[in-house]
DNA sequence: GGGTGCGATGTGACCGGTCACAATCCTGCC
DNA sequence: GGCAGGATTGTGACCGGTCACATCGCACCC
């Protein structure tokens, strides 16, 4: 234990351990890597010595010599948005528990060349990769990861062609959106409008789920409004929607957008939920404390992150391992309710 | 350029470059490290070859051999809270631009031993350290970093004893709190109550600034309410404050708490800003879109992060370098206003 | 009893950089 | 012309692990 005091003295190496235990450095290497052909008594002796000296394998040396690297790099388009940040937190927790080092690399653009370069850099630092592929940049990154590099993807699309053959963890955005939409219809709304976050392709699962739910109820989906990540873009979309008196229910791609929409409705003088119901996505910590509090779909991104890391480890042993992330839960709060009884009302089904 | 396609062929090393350029590997090493005693013509030849072959130095090898490591590890108690997340983003941006790898290590507890262990691990992965020392865990970490390890601290206390001799970047929380408090007094409030975030010591600068502003106005500061990080704890504090009709102005340790307080006031039937003014801290993206929108102090954490990284680099050249972070800005919005003209009113000064 | 085969261990080279030192070049100057 | 001495360049060893291979011991079997 390099007494976090003030000794930059050389750290203990396997050769030190070997000398202290009276074996060869190779035997020490075998023990710390769990190689089977070491006599039990020897193994215990070595482990005891490792413990006594506080030996810890040097990551750089290991990486250089091509051993198991014990580090993960997270490739993501963003680190501050709720979903990404929470997933990152989950990964970090799990990685730390397993004594893995965690690296971060942000994908600034979704230009194919730049993404490829970013992936290159991430790969060259050794270790495994976890790609958060909720967006175009992340999805591109998947295709740029050379085979042979251990990696796991977090995706919203169950079977992306991009990730083929690669293990992924799936967060069931589609089912979540379907549930939220069905809930609004059940309350008696004639239709549900959608304000979307930026998404990889036309297959954005939140949008797909919303559309499916409408179609299943025999309703032609209205044109979705494309927004960005910032609440301001939700606000703009909300302003547009507020003008249309037929709009009584709005599903938003995430909670930030939903807050923007709420604000717009407020400014436009449309009461929530009496005139308009607003539903978000994610259940950020603030959702519960807005005025009105926000009905939203809780997604356990932190659990998703942990699942990614767990899969990374399982996959090393069993390449057929696959995980679905935790199931989404609809949280009903003040921002949603039946439409104002009157013209726009529709018979509740339940 | 390892054509991100499917060649796990060995990457190019300095010896390859050396061979291609017709010089020794040592010369290549000198060139890429900017060593002065290399003939200009040789340097250019080597650089051209490096470029042509797409050579990039191997981080692991460098770390192992004790060279300059080109990587930073961020030590932080949290990654999702706005301030931390934004600082992390700034660091990552700057680091990426300088072609540094970025690592993360979360300080789970503020137990001295565990913190020391975390620091050890972070140090052993080589490279520099940036410590976000806004809280007890971060502050502890500062003292646990062995000398000789390049590091920079982001602190809210201008001259912490803990960081002595170490470079730090200071975010002027105290001035920000003073400004916000003075603003509320100027609006005519008799006093300002404070709901605090968890903080390292009694010297929490946000609280100090608030107290100073009150004392400067000849007002005895009321007992501050200690809250946590979650909006819910702000909500609880708000419920307490709402009961007291004398409370007309509340300053909150951050925007999340402020939202909790807003919600509590709403539920308690106290109008904001007519009955009570609420001011936050940070200016998170949502502050502008709350109902009412939140008056808050904008702190450029992202800029703080960039400054930390910049200092890390400057410091290597000039160990007397120091930086103050960007100045805070008070953003006036709907959640604050003069007290309801009546009993509690106090003559505005301006 | 001695070869076979496997379990357990040790030896050497290597990963891709850096350091310390030695060797070479060139220039100025006597 | 020869030599001192700085500027340039090259050589060897090393960082701390891993790999491939050689070696050793021993039980097993014919």
Describe the structure.
The structure is a homodimer of 350-residue chains. Chain A is of the alpha/beta class. Chain A contains twelve helices and twelve strands. In chain A, the strands form two sheets. A six-stranded parallel β-sheet of chain A has the order 2-1-3-4-5-11, with helices on both faces. A six-stranded mixed β-sheet of chain A has the order 7-6-8-9-10-12, sandwiched between helices. In chain A, helix 1 crosses helix 2, helix 5 packs across helix 12 and helix 8 packs parallel to helix 9. The radius of gyration of chain A is 25 Å and the shape is elongated. At the A-B interface, helix 4, helix 5, strand 2, helix 6 and helix 10 of A face helix 4, helix 5, strand 2, helix 6 and helix 10 of B. The structure holds a DNA duplex (30 and 30 nucleotides).
């Amino acid at each position: 234990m390099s007494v976090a005091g003030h000794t930059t003295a050389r750290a203990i190496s396997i050769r030190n351990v070997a000398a202290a235990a009276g074996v060869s450095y190779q035997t020490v290497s075998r023990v710390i890597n769990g190689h089977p052909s070491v006599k039990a008594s020897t193994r215990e002796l070595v482990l005891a010595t490792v413990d006594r000296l506080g030996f810890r394998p040097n990551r750089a040396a290991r990486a250089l010599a091509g051993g198991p690297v014990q580090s993960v790099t997270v490739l993501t388009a963003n680190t501050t948005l709720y979903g990404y940040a929470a997933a990152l937190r989950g990964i970090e927790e799990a990685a730390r528990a397993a004594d893995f080092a965690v690296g971060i690399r942000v994908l600034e653009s979704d230009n194919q060349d730049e993404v490829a370069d970013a992936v290159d850099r991430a790969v060259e630092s050794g270790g495994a990769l976890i790609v958060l592929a909720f967006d175009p940049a992340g999805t591109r990154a998947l295709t740029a990861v050379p085979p042979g590099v251990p990696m796991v993807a977090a995706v919203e699309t169950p079977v992306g062609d991009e990730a083929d053959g690669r293990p992924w963890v799936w967060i069931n955005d589609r089912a979540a959106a379907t549930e939220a939409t069905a809930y609004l219809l059940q309350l008696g709304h004639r239709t549900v409008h959608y304000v979307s976050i930026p998404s990889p392709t036309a297959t954005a699962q939140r949008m797909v789920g919303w559309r499916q739910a409408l179609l299943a109820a025999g309703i032609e989906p209205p044109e979705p409004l494309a927004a960005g990540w910032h609440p301001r873009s939700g606000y703009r979309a909300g302003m547009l929607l507020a003008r249309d008196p037929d709009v009584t229910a709005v599903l938003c791609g995430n909670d930030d957008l939903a807050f923007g929409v709420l604000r717009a409705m407020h400014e436009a003088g449309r009461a929530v939920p009496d005139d308009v119901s607003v539903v978000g996505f994610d259940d950020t910590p603030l959702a519960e404390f807005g005025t009105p509090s926000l009905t939203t779909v809780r997604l356990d991104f932190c659990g998703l992150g942990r699942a990614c890391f767990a899969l990374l480890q399982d996959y090393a042993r069993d390449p057929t391992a696959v995980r679905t992330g935790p199931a989404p839960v609809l949280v009903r709060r003040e921002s949603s309710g039946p439409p104002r009884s009157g013209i726009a009302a529709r018979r509740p089904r339940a």
